[in-house]
Write a structure and sequence with these properties.
Helix content: 40-55%
Number of helices: 3
Largest sheet: none
Radius of gyration: 13 Å
């Protein structure tokens, strides 16, 4: 399935509950809220952890940034 350059406001978006896609704003928004971090910190954590799997990123955030 190819992505369009525009978003239809009626489009239903499905979030993969196992991985984080930093290219999709709704993915970044969802995971940022879930982990309680800013979108910038989430992007940094994905880069530094070397993984886009949610479980790996969550463990990295908990070990690196204990709130």
């Amino acid at each position: 399935m190819l992505r369009q350059n525009f978003y239809d406001k009626n489009e239903i978006r499905v979030i993969d509950r196992k991985s984080i896609n930093l290219q999709e704003y709704y993915d970044v928004e969802y995971w940022s809220k879930k982990f309680g971090v800013t979108p910038e910190l989430l992007q940094r954590a994905v880069r530094e952890s070397g993984s886009n799997y949610a479980e790996d990123v969550e463990n990295f955030i908990k070990s690196k940034y204990p709130f």
